[in-house]
Specification:
alpha+beta, 4 strands, 4-stranded antiparallel β-sheet, Alpha-Beta Plaits, 319 residues
Length: 319
């Protein structure tokens, strides 16, 4: 379930309470008149089933509570309450299928921010992947995938398209482009330094690499993998189950390709470099396409499944 804590202007508290009481899947309603000091208003709290959360938030936003007060939403990991159990049973659909669009937008906005930390993770991931491609070491490639942070901006682009949020789209694309550009540039210099130390060699790059040669040789399977990774990553994010595994899935054809492009560039291997760039662009496109389609599909399916959200009358408390 979700827990909502709001500061509501006193003249809108009654309307907010009516909205909460008439929404299927809500319980534990608390109203503290005049309890808020900054901004001044009433504190209203309630718990709501995840399935009903997006609908309720939309209704509350129409009351301009977010502009003149505040709405804070948190996940409830454990709730020992028969009323909460009844509310979840009442709410149509399944919690795992519900998308809280405001929460998704906020999460992707934060994770798609271009920052020093984000660029540092991108550079480190690409450098680790560079070692992996030169040594043809699958363990290092997987390690680089886990470090890569590009899932945030990719998810931000997908969310921005579905939500029609141009600012989020621009923010995400800038983070994505600048991050990869910085990572490739830094890894090219890193490769030159490793070559000067005789740790990287052209012979290793041009030799047989059965574990990593696919990185710079895009084929139809590359696009298929990108589509599957994009769909899996989006589902994981919307169901609040995202984690390191999602990063691995998304990075499977992005960070390694950027690393191979950087190493090839340092040795003047134009063929490998362009092959890696094509792989990178192909998979970025595939991941974003799958993410957008997945979000639209979730939006459509949820509308058809959620049924009637409004109660005809205020609910009589159970038990």
């Amino acid at each position: 379930m979700l827990h909502l804590r709001m500061i509501v202007p006193s003249d809108r508290t009654l309307d907010a309470v009516k909205v909460i009481e008439s929404t299927v899947g809500t319980t534990h309603l608390v109203v503290l008149p005049g309890a808020a000091r900054d901004p001044v208003g009433d504190v209203v709290m309630c718990d709501v089933a995840r399935e009903a959360g997006d609908e309720l938030l939309g209704e509350l936003r129409e009351l301009r509570i977010a502009q003149d007060g505040s709405i804070a939403v948190g996940n409830i990991d454990l709730s020992l309450s028969t009323r909460a159990d009844a509310a979840e049973e009442e709410a149509p659909g399944e919690a795992a299928d519900a998308v809280i669009w405001e929460q998704l937008t906020g999460a992707t906005h934060e994770e798609s921010t271009l920052s020093i930390t984000y660029c540092a993770f991108m550079i480190l991931a690409t450098m680790i992947a560079a070692c992996g491609v030169v040594l043809d070491n699958a363990v290092l490639i997987v390690g680089a995938m886990a470090v890569g942070p590009e899932f945030g901006p990719l998810a931000g682009v997908c969310t921005a398209v579905v939500r029609r949020a141009p600012k989020l789209a621009a923010r995400s694309l800038i983070a994505l482009l600048v991050g990869f550009a910085a990572a490739i540039a830094a890894t090219t210099l890193f490769s030159l330094g490793m070559d000067a130390l005789d740790l990287f060699t052209r012979e290793r790059l041009d030799g047989d690499r059965p574990n990593t040669s696919f990185i710079w040789q895009p084929d139809p399977f590359s696009f298929v993998v990108a589509l599957l990774a994009g769909a899996a990553g989006t589902l994981s994010l919307t169901s609040a189950k995202s984690g390191a595994l999602v990063g691995v899935a998304i990075s499977v054809t992005t960070v390694p390709a950027a690393a191979n492009a950087a190493v090839a560039l340092s040795y003047g291997e134009v063929g490998q470099m362009w092959g890696s760039v094509e792989q990178l662009l192909l998979n970025l496109f595939g991941i974003m396409l799958a993410g957008i389609v997945t979000l639209y599909a979730q939006k459509l399916l949820w509308r058809t499944q959620r049924g009637h959200w409004r109660r005809p009358t205020a609910r009589t408390p159970k038990g």
